[in-house]
Amino acid sequence: MHHVRCVILALAAVSTLSAAVAMPHNVLETFAAPTGLRWSQAAFLKDSGIEVTYNTSELHHSGDWVKVAWKGVLEPQASDMLAVFCPPDAYEIGGAAVKYANASDSPGYLESGAGSTALRLVNLRCDMRIVLLRADTSTVIAVGPVLHNLNPNEPTGVHLMRTQEPTEMLVQFTTRDKGQPVVQYSYAADDAQRTQVPATTTTYKASDLCGPPASTFGWVDPGHLHTAAMTALQPGRQVFYRVGDAASGIFSPAFSFHVPPVVGSDTTVRMLVLADQGVGEVDGSAQAMEYFPAAGVAQLMVKDSRGASSSGLDFSLVLHVGDIAYARGFGALWDAFLFQQQELSSRVPYMVAIGNHERDHPNQPSCIHPTMDSGGECGVPFEHRWPMPFAGPDQPWFSFDHGPVHFTVMSTEHSYEHGSPQHAFLTADLASVHRGRTPWLVLLAHRPFYIDADDAAYGPEAKQSTAKQLQMALEDLLAKHGVDLCLAGHHHSYQRTCPVYKNTCQDQSSSGRRGIVHLCVGNAGAQFYNNGFPETPNWIMHEAQLTHGYARFEANRTHFRIEALDSQGDSAGRVFDEVTLTRFAPNLNLFTDAKDVAAMARAEMEVKARALREEERRKKLAELEEQLIEAETTARVQAWVESKVTDALGSDVVQRSLQQRLEQERKLLEQQVHEELNRERQLAEEAERGRREAIDQQKLELRKLEEERQQMEQAVKAKQQQEEEHEAQRRFAELAAKMREADEWRRREQQQEKERREKGKNRVDAGRPKFSFKLGYSQMKLRPVVGVALAAALVRWAVSLHDYSGLATPPRFGDYEAQRHWMEITVSLPPSEWYRNSSRNDLGYWGLDYPPLSGYQVISGAVAAMYPSRGQPYSACCVLTLPEPHSWLCGKFVQRFEPKAVELRASRGYESPFSKFLLRQTVLAADALVALPAALAAAVVFGGGSNGRRLQLLVALLFSPATVLIDHGHFQYNCIGLGLAMGAAAAAAVGHDVLCSVLFSLSLNHKQMGLYYAPAFFAYLFGRCLQQRTPGGKVCAVARLGVVVALTFGLVWAPWLRAPGAAWLDVLRRVFPTQRGLYEDYVANWWCTSSRLIKWTRLLSQARLLQLCSTATLATAAPAMAMQLLRPSPRGFLLCLAASATAFFLFSYQVHEKSILLPLLPLSMLFGAEDPQLLCWINVIATFSMAPLLQKDRLGLAAIGTVAACIAAVQIAQIATAKTDAPRQHRGGTPLLSGRRIQQRLIQLSFLGCVVLLVAFVMLPPPQHLPFLYDALIVTWSFLHIAALFAYVYILMLQEFHNAGKAKQP
User: Fold this and answer.
1) Which of 391, 566, 882, 1284 could form a disulfide with 395 if both were Cys (CB 3.0 to 4.6 A apart)?
2) How far is CA 255 from the centre of its chain?
């Protein structure tokens, strides 16, 4: 075997090995097969007379034995060996062999040059070839013929797995082809009516792995991995099943298993536990990573699982705590391991935790141990072959219940520090355990918390180092929730601690903190370390540094028994350590767990009664056996005496005398036996009476305990009922007071209305737009509206002639490529796959990260106002929607004229002139169908009572330079989301709350940035609901809006809500990522501006930054919400929209430059008719804040043109309005801006600063040590303006709040 190991390393070593960094735990070197071998050399040697033959040319089943013979080697050497290759030509292209055998192990080979051996081959779904090699010179000596695999679709690697549902069982198997994989199962072995369930299929490619050897010379095609679920199983029943292909009829032999018992404290379960096993060959050969003792452990576990226990229970679970197959990049080892374990794993569910040899790799950011231990696999084969109920992709932590035990499985290869996703999972899972239902709590973690290992020389990767890290991060959490046992491996030994906490053994009988028993079972096959401390730590109770084996558990309500078994040689099956953990009297709260107390007391009495009956039965049997022996002895003595006397005397007289004496003695003996039996019967009756009295006493105690529990429950219910009565009385008093207040307010309103009618006056402030439900009295003229729309379309067309984001900048290009890629995905894939990473949808390349309406979104058709007849009030507005999938529709439009532009995967970076033209037209169409109708509705509602001012507001909304530049220059579809939000605001202002809710829900489902408006919409609509006169009316109004919102979301999300596998969770993960950072590029908000002085990302973790941003955003938006909740009004609603969106832009998390469009929209609706000059200044600042982005997209000239067009259009509309409408007093002026001259001076000063910075930004190069100086100055200057505008909006809100209060006064 020593030669085998040496030759394996020689064959696998690279021709020139790179220097390897020392690592502490079997760090995998970089392997590669010899590259200098050529077929011509092998053919030459073969022609020299060396022959390799087999006893068969065909392989039928996994595990077939093949006898190999060879002869004619002229100079045999000890390094000669046989190597098995799959596929047959793998040795020619540098592939690693799947197994090796030392030729010199064949007797007489070194003398005769001939030999033979037998090899057991696992079905790897391909043909094979056996080659004779000389390792020391990397020479192919001879090549055997091809072994043809006649059964590549044989179901192999069958193994069962639990789910989080106790009545379900998963089974996985492997075939070469996909086919129609199924599992057939029933409760009878010969049942022809089996239940058939289809299986889901997955696989992985070499490109999915992280590096060599896994992705190169160690690669073996894994075939197709099929997983099926057997559901609605009856606990305790035996299930017979088989797996295979329904199309070809190829099935496995029949297997069976027992369904695990029901979850609960009244059951008893037995389990097998191991870690760090690997693969061991039984034919004398070796794998690339060989652990020979692993085979003995596997065989002993199978034998143990088939034997009967003292309790009569079968094993119902196997727990493998990491380092499973030790494949480390050699794919054939996974198949060999599953074949080795199949006899056990096909009968008992096999649950695993991830270890370092499945996951660790230097190129994986999510891995906290940057070693080569996985050999380039980085967890991919593990997650495909062991589909545990993981928390998510690359999140291999989960939990499940089994009998009276709750198992929590963590990953020590991923971050478990406070604030990490795994720490959050552990905290929530441990807190949710019901200890009355599952009294035992067990944690599985591959790396141990406590270990006797003196390996400090390995530095950060030493086992003591990681143990300390685990203790610091998690020990307090585990102790807080009362974890009983921690299972681990990693260190190749068996070790058990006392109940320990903070390196100190705890007294479990005291009332203090319970310690945790830590059990290391890393002795299942891997080589030993034997590196304990010179002085064993005092918390080690038992350790075996040089004993291979495994452990077995038996758990019930009160006892948890642990036994460690030896698997070596003559000691195989010997129990070398055993201990029983107990939980007789947990501290329970009688108010919450009285039922559990009663159940535990009942169980304890049943155990005692069962033990008493068993003891009496044993005593009675012993007594009866003694009596039987005594009677048989007496009879034998009597017969012997009679025979002897008869032989000696022969006299009839003597015989009669002796017979009389014997008869007397017999009668006397019978009398004594009868008296003895009577005494025993009396004793038995007394014992039975005593037992019954004990049982009656226990029942009495239980009845008393039950009565106390009922009394406690009655007392609690009485107290709760009393508190509810007091609360009801208090609420009734509050309601009566509110009703009196409402009646008084109604009376005052009626009196006020009466006075207004008598005086013939209307209490409306001079010059104030009428934001009541009567929206206007005249129609807007058609010709000016058409002119404005055509002019706006011309500006958009001119901007679309410029460059766009990411033009000719591979590999990812920009937003134009993102929109085109989404059309490609939506045209080619079903909705359930849009947000899910797959071979057809690479989420790493512009994966869809907007809500469903961006991919399957409702295109708003038009926002149309119901124009009244002359003299009639404006009564309603409506929004028409066309239910078409936008990205799909746009993609089909492009596909119709240029299919290559949206061809799946092949169209990446496609930028033909015609495709650019087509995509530009889709944005223009969306603008015309959604933004234009919405702008018309907003102009009618918020433009006041004159056509001129409505036209002026329409111009302000359609000529917004920032929106035009981003949608038609940079290339996006913001016009849809902003148009839906505009329509929702107009509907809300005229009282159409249901229509408002529908439109705003659609806006949220178009882009998640619609949340910027959510606080304002919520406050305004909820405030209107609270204005209902009766409590029932308030509740009905809120319920109606809630139902409308739920139905709208349900319709939009229907494809993902109906899809299997919780597809809607994939949408949520994509829509709300938290990994992109605090802000993107240069944003004119607080975090980006202040980051020049305060390095936020260095001071605070990501979780803390999220909390800080959320708090700051809600704190700055809350006053505006409160004002609308108390006194909702249409103008106040617009101000609240502006305040909420600006607060989100300034203080929320993950903001980019384009987010300025969100606060710009309500500001345009607010000042478009009231203060056009101020709105022009706002548009300039918004566009100026995006200067770095526009310069990068080469849109500088387009920006200057759109700003000029906006200012000119606003001025023309203002002049036209002045000619047709009477001058109006400016509303909302403040002391700061009440003087028009002061306002003009401030605006001129602001423009001057913008011009100076832009000239410097374009003309002057920045200092070399400050390359982004001008970007930072532009951001800071813009931030100061936006912050000042934010303050100005709040001043106007306070004025509106005051005016609304005055309007309510009589």
Assistant:
1) 391
2) 32
Q: Are strands 99-102 and 80-85 parallel, antiparallel or unpaired?
A: antiparallel
Alpha carbon distance 1294, 1287 (integer Å): 11
Alpha carbons 862 and 936: distance in angstroms, whole number: 9
Please give the Cα distance from 450 to 487 (Å, whole number): 11
860: helix, coil or strand? strand
Strands 139-149 and 58-59: parallel
Question: How far, in Å, CA of 955 to CA of 1176, rounded?
Answer: 11
What pLDDT does 610 receive? 58
Cβ burial, residue 520 (10 Å; 0-12/13-18/19+): buried
* Residues in contact with 326: Cβ distance below 8 Å, sequence separation at least 6, in sequence order: 277, 278, 279, 289, 291, 333, 357, 526
Closest CA to 183 of 230, 239, 243, 224: 243
DSSP 187: S
What is the per-residue pLDDT for 1030?
87
Q: Cα-atom radius of gyration of the chain, to the nearest Å? A: 42
Is the link from the previous residue into 365 a cis peptide, with omega within 30 of 0? no
Q: What is the pLDDT of residue 340?
A: 96
Within 1171-1239, strands assigned E span: none
CA dist., res. 176 & res. 124, Å (int): 8
| 1081-1109 tens-digit pLDDT | 788 899 888 888 888 878 888 888 888 99
Give, rounded to a whole angstrom, the gap between the first and last alpha carbons of the chain: 103
SS percent in the chain: helix, strand, coil, step 5: 50, 15, 35
CA distances from 455 to 151, 467, 491, 497, 545 (A): 48, 12, 11, 19, 14
**Is the CB of residue 857 less than 8 Å from the CB of residue 1006?**
yes
User: What pLDDT is stored for residue 1232 in this prediction?
Assistant: 41
Three-state DSSP at 880 gives strand
* Sign, CA torsion 376/379/383/388: positive
Q: How far is CA 459 from CA 194, 355, 416, 472, 493, in A?
A: 57, 19, 20, 17, 21
The list of the chain residues with pLDDT below 50 reads 1-47, 511, 585-599, 649, 760-778, 857-885, 1222-1235, 1306
Q: How far is CA 1071 from the centre of its chain?
A: 15
From the CB of residue 1028, how many other CB atoms can be counted at a distance below 10 Å? 15
Is residue 882 within 8 Å of 859, Cβ to Cβ? yes
Look at residue 552 and give its three-state secondary structure: strand
Strand partners, 146: 129
Q: What angle do CA 553, 555, 559 make, to 5 degrees?
A: 115
Q: What is the bridge-based pairing of β-strands 200-202 and 224-230?
A: antiparallel
Burial of 1084 (0-12, 13-18, 19+ CB in 10 A): buried
* Helix spans in 959-1026 (H): 961-964, 974-989, 993-1006, 1014-1026
d(CA 370, CA 459): 13
d(CA 991, CA 1023): 12
- 545 is written with which tokens? 């540094």
Tell me if 1144 sits within 8 A of 1121, measured CB to CB: no
Dump the DSSP string for 844-900.
Answer: TTT---S-HHHHS-PEEEEEEE-PPPTTSPP--EEEEEE---HHHHHHHHHHHH-GG
For residue 103, give the DSSP letter: G
Quote the CA–CA distance of 789 and 781 in Å, as a whole number: 13
Q: Quote the strand ranges of 785-936, DSSP E.
A: 859-865, 877-882
Select from 444, 223, 228 the least CA-distant residue to 334. Answer: 223
Backbone angles phi, psi at 861, to 5 degrees: -80, -60
How many C-beta atoms lie closer than 10 Å to residue 753's C-beta?
A: 11
User: What's the chain's length in residues?
Assistant: 1306
Q: Please tell me the distance from the alpha carbon of residue 784 to that of residue 584, in angstroms, as a whole number.
A: 87
> Cα–Cα distance between 45 and 43 in angstroms, integer?
5
Instruction: Give the C-alpha separation, 916 to 907, whole Å.
Output: 13
pLDDT of residue 303: 92
